[in-house]
Amino acid sequence: xxxxxxxxxxxxxxxxxxxxxxxxxxxxxxxxxxxxxxxxxxxxxxxxxxxxxxxxxxxxxxxxxxxxxxxxxxxxxxxxxxxxxxxxxxxxxxxxxxxxxxxxxxxxxxxxxxxxxxxxx
Length: 121
Fold this sequence. Notes:
Oligomer: single chain
Strand content: under 5%
């Protein structure tokens, strides 16, 4: 009885490690083609390495990849700018926009009061 249970857990562990390895390999492929700092030729070389020797190639790619690439810096700058833009909108600005919408006839008085109550609360 315990032999079958042991084999079952060994099988689960093997499946877990294979799925993890495949996910790492796919992530390396996706990262490779999403990078802007590599030329087309270098992407082709890395793609061949990842296809011909997948697990060892993925390990080499993860070690050789810089910690921060130009694409990563662009993404961080965009995220920071988005946070600054979102935090720059105050409740007073939102109330003014609602009043302008009400004046323009885009929203009704009831909608204005409901949206105003959500903003103030």
